[in-house]
């Protein structure tokens, strides 16, 4: 690691700590030439393979921008989008693969987006999954309704089973 002050070609690690819940490592370094200290942050790189075969580094910002279009006009804040992008990245990193298809990222987005906003989910899924007819929308809406009814029934069961105070 080059020293940012004197450009010496070497430095030694003085201290290492994990940050971002273990997603990165912060290292405190010292230059042997000028004795100045500086910090570096190291993260494992993720590479995305696009449909065309081109590769590019993973970017949370691209996820936020893509999902933001689906959320346009919906009650979804920038903080919600940032949390969604973080969840997607954690899911992808949890797979253990350093290189993944863009399709895998889209699949990882669908679950958290469905929980965040059902309308935005339908918009994103219609483009991502290539809905070609009203039947595709109808099938997706039917699945959303069934999931909602199952969640509501499960919540009702928990209320009934709760001990009385």
Automatic annotation (TrEMBL):
GO molecular function, one term: zinc ion binding
Gene Ontology BP annotations: negative regulation of DNA-templated transcription
ATP-cone domain mapped to chain residues: 46-136
Keywords: ATP-binding, DNA-binding, Metal-binding, Nucleotide-binding, Repressor, Transcription, Transcription regulation, Zinc, Zinc-finger
InterPro entries cross-referenced by the UniProt entry: ATP-cone_dom (IPR005144), NrdR-like_N (IPR055173), RNR_NrdR-like (IPR003796)
Similarity comment: family membership: Belongs to the NrdR family.
Cross-referenced HAMAP family: NrdR
UniProt name for this protein: Transcriptional repressor NrdR
Organismal lineage: Bacteria, Bacillati, Actinomycetota, Actinomycetes, Micrococcales
